[in-house]
Amino acid sequence: MNDKDKPLLSVRNLTIHYITDNGVVKAVNDISFDLAKGETMGLVGETGAGKTTTALGIMNLIPNPPGKIINGEILVDGKNILEFNKYQTRKYRGNVASMIFQDPMTALNPILTVGEQIAEVSRYHNKLSKAESYVKAAEMLELVGIPSERINEYPHQFSGGMKQRVVIAIALACNPQLLLADEPTTALDVTIQAQVLALMGDLIKKYGTSMVLITHDLGVVTEICDRVAIMYAGQIVETGDLEAVYEHTKHPYTKGLFGSLPRISDKTSRLNPIDGLMPDPTNLPNGCPFHPRCPDKMPECESRVPANTEIEPGHFVRCLLYE
Questions:
Q1: Which residue segment(s) compose the domain that 274 sits in?
Q2: Bond prior to 273 in cis (omega within 30° of 0)
Q3: What are the residues whose beta carbons fall under 8 Å from the beta carbon of 108, sequence distance 6 or more?
Q4: What is the pTM assigned to this prediction?
Q5: How many domains does the chain have?
Q6: Average pLDDT for residues 66-75, to the nearest whole number?
C-alpha cells in the first residue's frame, strides 16, 4: 500500500469506559474503522450510543478521571495519538485534527470578541503575530459568510446559525487534515441547517479535509457523507458506503432505524418504532447488545458476541445472521 492509499484515520479495537461510583459506563466497545483522506463519514446512532465519546477519543480529550481508554489504537497518518506526550498532543489538536462541538451557544466565550477567538487559534498553533492573526480571522469570517466588519462583535450579537459559522471558522482556522463535527446543526432550525451543511460541504472540499460527522439524522448523512457507520450501545453494528447501507441494509438495528422514518409519500402508513430501549451502558446484556430488541434474534445471540463481518467489499455488519 503506497502513502496515497493509506487511510488518514484508522481506529482499531477502541474501548472507552467511564469509571463512576455507580458503576462502569461502557461507552465505546471494541470499534474499528478507517477514514480516507478527503472522505466524509457519518457516525449515526441514538443518544447514548457512544458517538461523542468516540470523537473525544480521537481528539485525545477523554476526561480522566472518570474516563479511561481501556484498549485500542487511534492512528492518524500512521502515528498512534494515544502515545503522544503533552507537547505532541497540543500540536496535534488544531494543526492536524479539530472539533466542532455540539452546541454553538456554549462553545464560544461570551466575554471575547469572535475575532479574538478565531485569531487566538492562529496565534497559538501557527505562531502568527497579533496583526497577522486578525487578518486571518477576517479571512475566515468572510469564508463562512460573515462580513469581516463584524470581527469585533461578541457572541451574543449573533444568531444561532451565525454562532455555528463562527465555530466552524475557529475549527478550520489552522486548515486541519481531520475535522470532527459533533451534531453541528442540532440547535438550528431546518433552513439554517441546510445552509450550514452546504457551507461545511464546500469548505471540506476546498481544503481537502477528512470529516467524521456525528448525527442522529439519516437525512443529513445523505447530504454530505461518502460513507456511514451505525452505532448502537457502544458498538459500530454496520458500516459501508451510502448505497450499501441505505439500499442493502443488513443489520436488524439499521433496518429498524429506516423503518421508523416517516414517509411523506404515504400518508396512511404508521410509524414503526423499534421496540424497547437502548440498554443501560453500566449493565449491557451478554452476547449481542441489540438482542433484547431484535425481531430476528436467535438463541445464540444471547451468549455470543458477533464478529465484524465483511459481507461485500467495504460493507461490514456485526450480526450473527451474517457469520
A1: 3-96+177-322
A2: no
A3: 114, 117, 155, 163, 166, 167
A4: 0.91
A5: 2
A6: 96
Considering the domain architecture, whether residues 212 and 305 belong to the same structural domain is answered as yes
Beta bridge partners of 100: 181
pLDDT band at residue 3 under the 50/70/90 scheme: low
Quick count: other Cβ atoms within 10 Å of Cβ 305? 14
E strands, 154-290, in order? 178-182, 210-215, 227-232, 235-241
CATH number at residue 23: 3.40.50.300
Nearest to 44 by CA among 238, 212, 231, 220: 231
The residue from 159, 175, 191 where one domain ends is 175
CB-based contacts of 284, cutoff 8 Å, min separation 6: 26, 29, 233, 234
Shared domain check, 305 and 211? yes
Nearest partner of 226 among 68, 27, 35, judged by Cα:
35
From 137, 152, 175, the end of a domain falls on 175
